[in-house]
Automatic annotation (TrEMBL):
GO terms for cellular component: plasma membrane. This is Potassium transporter TrkA. Its main location: membrane. The chain crosses the membrane at residues 13-31, 38-57, 77-103, 115-144, 164-188, 200-223, 435-468, 480-498, 518-548, 560-579, 599-619.
């Protein structure tokens, strides 16, 4: 319950103003006529102004809702944890550390999209039962994105389900969520036994499996496919256009010794080999089955940008060292700095027209390696270095970030701004994975709080070279920062002015005289609704004493109502501010506030109905 001194010091005006702000913010977040960032900033500004002129004093006359209290959300440990984990997750993405896990899931899922999705989401639900679900979601965001791309599904159909299954998994054990631990702590403070580790695993598993079925088969149909359209416009790798590329097989390549099967090389999926040049001899398809790839062979291939990137990432030794470095002043520059992949077009009047790459000396003149040439008019069957360039040709180039940026100043080429993308750094993948697993292991064992481990992990990602400062800063989403800060400020004001207790008491008063199962069902629904307005932790602290008091009045085992709080407070599905994992997937899924409301509301209703039917039978509560 809220402290009586605080509640009595609040005026009705303060309480009703805060309640009006809650209603107004939900409407604005849902309509999104104004951006979420601007709505959040306006909400914080109104709270600051109102409680500056109408302060809420404590027993000593200090304003409980002064600027420091209302702005404390920006320094909230939960927010800093999320931001740090986003940086750590970005390190895993840029080093390609998640591609192996995504490959395992798709390999076992085969071509069946439903099986692949089931495996990925079920693994998340199982892991979330024993690990903090925030880092679990962080690592699986890029994995599910890669999975969606491989099975040609929109990421927006899978990001919200990813967050939901993590929350559902957290319902099954005592350490599955911080909410569960808070309810157990509240019981101890009320002089009752704490919840046992697996005390609510049975009922939690029933709810989790019911929700999982909904998340797998129904929720994706309720979500928009906007992310896929945006990705086609913003993600150059989604283009299907073919480049002519020339690959020199290096001495460390996995291709050495490979032989064609039915004319194709399994090490180069989605890539068509048009010619193999060995010394002065050129072989054209169809290739004989006894032909064996050797170091130094030149492969002239036709492939999409995505297929080329995946091949070079999977086999870093594919490119010969001579082609994998550029020279400056006669010295070789190792390509272990930040590498960009971009496309440049030759405009009419370019001085490069009519010359081939060797004549131009493109690699030495511009310090960028040309990976491929794309020409719409015809497919070229010759070595890439011998192709004479024409106006309109598009070159796929790789180089250091500063060298690619320098192409803007070259009038002979036009850098296609939308095409620039950071390349994965496979040589940092092991250290990035070590840092990430260390963050999870240290936090899961309780050696240090997850806030500490995640912040140190983010710092190590930058210090180790897996990320630079610019890439780390890009991983931080300002929408998350402002949404969390505004939600925490509003939730704090709602509790301290007595608004949360007032609404809860009014709703619970309507249940007096009803049978115990009905009261338990309505209590679950009330907590589930509140957890999407307040934080789930706030609901755990607020409603546990209320539930215990109701159980004692009804003569029901108090732990039953405590478990109802655990289950309902974890139903943070209808709002992005209800739970950290919802905020994490908001950006990758390109979601609006209303998308969570559309997908989460049916899930809350399903869990409420399942709990209302199963709990009275399981705990033998008579009508």
């Amino acid at each position: 319950m809220i402290d009586s001194v605080v509640a009595s010091s609040a005026t009705p005006l303060q309480m009703w103003v805060v309640l009006a702000l809650v209603a107004g913010s939900l409407v604005l977040y849902g309509l999104e006529r104004i951006s979420l960032e601007l709505t959040s900033m306006a909400l914080i500004a109104i709270l600051l102004l109102f409680f500056n002129f109408f302060p809420l004093p404590d027993a000593e006359g200090n304003n409980l809702l002064d600027a420091g209290a209302l702005m404390s959300g920006f320094a909230n440990p939960a927010l800093l944890t999320v931001l740090s984990l986003l940086v750590v997750g970005q390190g895993m993405v840029l080093t390609g550390g998640v591609s192996y896990i995504a490959g395992l899931i798709t390999e076992h899922g085969g071509k069946n999209a439903s099986v692949a999705i089931f495996i990925g989401l079920f693994v998340v639900m199982l892991m979330s039962a024993f690990l903090n679900n925030t880092p679990v979601v962080v690592i699986f965001i890029p994995i599910i994105q890669a999975l969606a791309e491989r099975i040609q599904r929109s990421p927006s159909a899978l990001m919200i389900p990813l967050s939901y299954v993590a929350i559902l998994g957290g319902m099954t054990t005592l350490i599955g969520s911080s909410t569960n631990l808070l309810v157990s702590s509240s019981l101890i403070e009320l002089g009752m036994p704490a919840l046992e580790f697996f005390e609510f695993t049975v009922i939690g598993s029933v709810l989790a499996l019911s929700g999982f079925i909904y998340v797998l088969f129904i929720a994706p149909r309720l979500l928009p496919a906007l992310a896929s359209m945006r990705s086609k416009l913003a993600n150059p790798d989604s283009s299907g256009k073919q480049f002519i590329a020339q690959i020199t097989v290096g001495p460390a390549s996995q291709m050495i010794g490979s032989r064609p099967v039915a004319g194709f090389f399994k090490n180069l999926p989605n890539i068509t080999i048009q010619m193999i040049v060995r010394r002065e001899h050129a072989d054209l398809p169809p290739f004989e089955e006894d032909m064996e790839i050797q170091a130094g062979d030149v492969l002239v291939v036709a492939a999409t940008r995505k297929a080329l990137t995946e091949a070079l990432q999977k086999d870093p030794g594919l490119l010969h060292a001579e082609a994998a470095a550029v020279h400056e002043g006669g010295e070789e520059i190792p390509q272990k700095s930040t590498q960009l992949l971009a496309e440049v077009m030759l405009p009419p009047g370019s001085r490069l027209i009519g010359f081939n790459l060797e004549q131009i000396g493109f690699r030495y003149q511009y310090k960028c390696l040309v990976l491929g040439i794309q020409r719409r008019s015809r497919m070229i069957r010759t070595q890439m270095t011998e192709i004479r360039l024409e106006a309109g040709d598009v070159l796929l180039v790789q180089g250091r970030s500063e060298d690619v940026e320098a192409l803007r100043t070259i009038r002979d080429v036009v850098l296609l701004e939308w095409s620039t993308r950071t390349l994965p750094r496979p040589f940092h993948a092991r250290r990035a994975a070590t840092i990430f697993l260390g963050v999870i292991a240290v936090a899961a064992t309780g050696l240090v709080p997850i806030m500490v481990s995640s912040f140190i992990g983010a710092a190590l990602m930058i210090a180790s070279g897996a990320l630079n400062l610019r890439q780390a800063s890009r991983a931080i989403d300002r929408k998350i920062v402002l949404l969390v800060a505004a939600a925490l400020a509003l939730g704090n004001a709602l509790q301290l002015t007595g608004g949360a207790e007032f609404v809860a008491d009014q709703l619970l008063a309507a249940t007096r005289g009803a049978p115990a199962p009905i009261i338990l069902s309505l209590f679950f629904l009330i907590v589930a609704l509140f957890t999407n307005v307040l934080s789930n932790n706030a609901c755990a602290v607020l409603f546990t004493p209320i539930g215990i008091g109701m159980a004692q009045n009804l003569g029901v085992e108090p732990h039953i109502f405590a478990i109802a709080v655990v289950m309902a407070a974890n139903c943070s599905f209808a709002s992005p501010v209800g739970y950290q994992t919802n905020l994490l997937v908001m950006g990758p899924g390109h979601y609006r506030f209303v998308d969570f409301l559309r997908a989460g509301t049916p899930l809350i209703i399903i869990l409420w109905l399942v709990f209302s039917l199963f709990a009275p039978w399981y705990y033998d509560i008579p009508f």
